[in-house]
Task: inverse folding
């Protein structure tokens, strides 16, 4: 069953850390079965507070999504995201 990793950027703390993250995150996807469905495109918040951006990644399964998120490469790079902005992240299985 497909799974979707959804990242919601709520507010930026350090733009230089986010720039570093943006430069390095693509490389962490290599070797993982992932499809980028959305990445900071035009958005309209229908409910709740405004957000700065949304990324949606599709994986073949929840296990594959977790394998990428917990990979050594992404663990290293995500520290820049943690320092750069306040995010919400969730992995959800599809139908």
Result:
């Amino acid at each position: 069953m497909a799974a979707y990793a959804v990242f919601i950027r709520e507010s930026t703390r350090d733009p230089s850390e986010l720039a570093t993250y943006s430069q390095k995150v693509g490389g962490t996807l290599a070797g993982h079965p992932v499809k980028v469905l959305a990445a900071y495109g035009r958005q309209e918040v229908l409910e709740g507070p405004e957000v700065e951006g949304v990324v949606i990644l599709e994986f073949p399964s929840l296990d594959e999504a977790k394998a990428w998120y917990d990979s050594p490469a992404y663990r290293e790079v995500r520290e820049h995201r943690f320092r750069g902005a306040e995010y919400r992240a969730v992995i959800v299985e599809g139908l």
